[in-house]
Amino acid sequence: LERVLDSSLGITAGRPDAPLSLTLAMSPSCGSCGLEKLMQVVEPFVASGDAHLSVVPLRAPGDASVEASLLAVCAAPETRFARFRKLVAAAVRWGSIAEEAQRRRAFADVLSEGDIPPVDVDACLRNGTARAALQRQHDDIIVATGLTAQPVLFIGGERREEADALPADELRWLILAQLPPARRVGSRGPTP
């Protein structure tokens, strides 16, 4: 995975030097992919410094996922994950809008809500270099991993397709099992 991720496009959360690396591959247009459900399990590991999360935005055929990804990576690195999360949560508001000007307005409306600093939507969407890099990263990860379903969560390099379908306790235990032994304490005590 490390070979196909472009650090200039980093959508991350947590300490980069955390003992466990988690990589989530999903389209920002997939509001039904359970990002918030996954984050309920992942966030405590990120907050404690045990895990670093990287998001690889995938493009979905025939929608505005590339544009949403551009809007996430256009932001300052420390706000990218929050912006990505906001775009996923609001995918129903922009994902099916075919007309470009209306879709841009929908993006601007979504991104103006809350406390995340605004971006120039038009400037972000005109960034051909970032667009090409996102498309290249998407193609590279598909070729390298053969992804066919989403969301996919790589836990320390171990692949879990449709990770949102895993029961929370099972996902928690999968993450705990990848941590160094001294860090393997969860809500039900040390892992086996």
Folded structure, characterized:
Helix 1 (35-47) packs parallel to helix 8, helix 2 (65-73) packs antiparallel against helix 3 and helix 2 (65-73) crosses helix 7 (128-145). With 192 residues, the chain is an alpha+beta fold. It has helices spanning 35-47, 65-73, 77-89, 91-94, 100-112, 121-125, 128-145, 168-178, and strands at 11-13, 20-26, 51-57, 152-155, 158-161, 185-186, 189-190. 39% of the residues are buried. Strand 6 and strand 7 (189-190) form a beta hairpin. The protein is globular, with a radius of gyration of 17 Å. The strands form 2 sheets. It has a 5-stranded mixed beta sheet, sandwiched between helices. A two-stranded antiparallel ribbon has the order 6-7.
User: How does the overall form come out from the CA principal axes?
Assistant: globular
Number of E strands: 7
Strand coverage percent: 15-25%
Task: Give the number of helices.
Answer: 8
Which SSEs are present, and which pair or pack?
Layout: E1 11-13, E2 20-26, H1 35-47, E3 51-57, H2 65-73, H3 77-89, H4 91-94, H5 100-112, H6 121-125, H7 128-145, E4 152-155, E5 158-161, H8 168-178, E6 185-186, E7 189-190
Helix pairs in contact: 1-8, 2-3, 2-7
Structure summarized in a few sentences:
The protein has 192 residues and is of the alpha+beta class. It has helices at residues 35-47, 65-73, 77-89, 91-94, 100-112, 121-125, 128-145, 168-178; strands at residues 11-13, 20-26, 51-57, 152-155, 158-161, 185-186, 189-190. Helix 2 packs across helix 7.
